[in-house]
Write a structure and sequence with these properties.
Elements lengths: L1 E7 L4 E7 L7 H29 L3 E7 L1 H18 L3 E7 L13 E2 L28 H7 L15
Parallel strand pairs: 3-4, 3-5
Antiparallel strand pairs: 1-2
């Protein structure tokens, strides 16, 4: 049993005769095999190398987060993450200012905000919700009085 493999060349197609069960090749087939096998091996080595890199996370991750989120949420889980991924370096900038992810080269920014704004080229996701509470010490309330409702809060404590 024989197979014909047409190979495109610049001017015409060359038919290669290849035996089905025995890899005896004619002149054109042998030359093609010899010249292409190195390219196939190089492509396979490149693929294997890239696949190996993807098996283990490595590199630097730059994260921006408000101070309270960095202290309360990131700091407790960071040691476990770093133990699981020892080749990942984590840089955290704990700041309450809104950073520019592109200009400042951050990979991730956590923000405590009421509304998520999508920017061009960036992806935003809600990670959860938090309740806000307002508290005061009894001595503060004794000195300044007790507000009767939220509408009094902007001027509260200024007297």
């Amino acid at each position: 049993m024989y197979r014909w493999y047409p190979l495109p060349t610049r001017d015409c197609f060359t038919a290669l005769l290849d035996r089905w069960r025995s890899p005896r090749r004619g002149g054109a087939g042998r030359r093609f095999y010899e010249q292409s096998s190195a390219a196939v091996e190089a492509a396979q080595a490149a693929y294997d190398g890239a696949a190996e890199l993807q098996k283990e996370l490595a590199g630097t991750v730059r994260v921006s987060a408000p101070l309270v989120l960095a202290e309360s949420y990131i700091a407790p889980i960071l040691p476990g993450y770093m133990a699981s991924y020892p080749k990942v370096a984590v840089y955290i900038e704990a700041t309450d200012r809104t950073v520019n992810l592109i200009e400042e080269r951050f990979d991730i920014a956590l923000r405590a905000t009421r509304q998520i704004e999508e920017a061009a080229g960036l992806v935003a996701r809600s990670l959860g919700t938090a309740r806000r509470i307002l508290i005061a010490s009894p001595s503060f309330l004794d000195r300044h009085g007790r507000p009767s409702g939220p509408d009094e809060l902007p001027d509260f404590g200024e007297h």
